[in-house]
Amino acid sequence: MQTRYRHRLAALLLAAACASAQAGPLPVVEASMDEQVIAIPAKIAGAEIGLQTTIYKPPGDGPFPVLFMNHGKAAGDAHQQQRARYPVISREFVKRGYAVVIPMRLGFAGSGGTYVNSHCRAKENGEDQASSLYAAMAYVMKQPWADLQHVILAGQSHGGLTAIAAGSHNINGVQGIINFAGGVNSRSHCDWKAALVDAFKAYGAVGTTPSIWFYGANDQHFGPALAADMYAAYTAGGGKAQLVAYGPFKRDAHGMSSSPDGVAIWLPETTRFLQSVGMPTEIKYTIKDSR
Question: Which InterPro entries does the record match to this protein (predicted)?
């Protein structure tokens, strides 16, 4: 399975290289990708807080299409979690001319407020998490460098649930959703798997934004059976989704999207998905090697 994806990626990169050779050298982006860390002002549940947010942008003034990438939940205190950067995903999108915005949600890392564990109420949990994303979007979409009509929501794990929840509101300008192993895993004494399926069913019943989902065979949190149940519930309600159920990835497919080796799995399918929703996919820049 992974060999097939690598062949697809090799063909994709070869085509890009040929196009680049014909058009001349591509502009170079510094390895930092103009990384900025800002505090986005937000009012969530009546509290005025700052959301620690990482932003990467290509050179120039834009406007750039925007990828909002949403992080997962590590074990332990959310405030002790490191700021999410997603360098692998960010590089691929910046190369294609996107600005990448990664907000730390309420109570995570350097963001204010307190994370509330409501995993047994998966639908409400996703909506609660989406409140931070809405605040980040409201700020970013006022910036002159942001293209209001070409936006993608994406997320990994808890961030995937966040992206699907937010996308179910059919936000103007959001053209698609990328779900990397989305969900929320509760160790509490409740049927959290059924709660997740019910959440995706509810989101699919109202959401019309196209989405693509990636779930691996050896995901330690959301295995193939659960992924299939969530997908069936989402699409049965009317949700638009493509499920990429790939095989095993290293020791735990849950981290596939953050691994350089995972690019061969998600990039070819994501490229086709982005093209299908009218988003740019052409490589416009090369990233300077920082080594």
Answer: AB_hydrolase_fold, FrsA_esterase, Xaa-Pro-like_dom
Domains and CATH numbers, the chain: 2-286 (3.40.50.1820)
Interacting residues of 142 by C-beta distance below 8 A, sequence separation 6+: none
Judged by DSSP in three states, 241 sits in strand
How high is the pLDDT of residue 124? 93
How many CB atoms within 10 Å of residue 27?
10
**Residue holding tokens 């405030």?**
79
Which helix (H) or strand (E) segment is 64 a member of?
strand 64-70
Confidence of residue 169 (pLDDT cuts 50, 70, 90): very high
Tally of residues, the chain: 291
pLDDT classification of 237: cutoffs 50, 70, 90: confident
**Residue 99 burial class via C-beta count within 10 angstroms: exposed 0-12, middle 13-18, buried 19 and up:** buried
Q: What pTM, to 2 d.p., does this model score? A: 0.90
In this structure, the number of other CB atoms found within 10 A of the CB of residue 13 comes to: 13
Amino acid 8: pLDDT: 47
